[in-house]
Amino acid sequence: MTSILVVYSSLNGENSKSTELADYYLQSREGSETSVTKVDVAELALAHLTGEEMQAWMTDASERTSSQKRLAAVSDDLVAQLQAADEIVLAVPMYNFGIPSSLKAYFDRIARAGITFKYTETGPVGLLEGKQAKVFASRGGVYEGGDYDTQTPYLTHFLNFIGITDVKFVYAEGLSMGEDSANESIANAKGKIIELTQKVAD
Fold first, then answer.
1. Where is each Flavodoxin-like fold domain found (predicted)?
2. Is 9 annotated as a binding residue?
3. 135-154 pLDDT, tens per residue?
């Protein structure tokens, strides 16, 4: 049984193209032995990370105040979901050349020293080894491989940092450049998703 954690991040919910691609991937996996957990970080509406919340994590669980327990539970629960997953699926639209701020707030809570990564004499080491990640990225323009595509290196670096080094991207671009361009891009992306699914089956 493969446990899949799906993280949605679009403000457009079910109307989002990144959501459509992630759901298409899940549909293409139907029939295989999988369990799916879904998290919509836009709906979670996580606040910007504060020093108070970070201090709650750093306080021993037995010594936390009731307020610190409440603050720490947010991150603890998200990390537990991630640790339990074999595969992470990220549905990521591009907002102003970057990832949604809601996804950044989520990342801030799953990057936990001593839990999802650790520091060593030779540098940081990720602790979530053996997991795979699929990123379904939707963009209004065409940015893949260019200077304005800050998402791909950032997501790659972040996932690698916490130990997830098997990362694959599928892009749907030019979605705001006319209906024909959008339809062609979505079709091409879905074709690549089928290829990914076939490789998983192999």
1. 3-194
2. no
3. 999 999 999 999 999 999 99
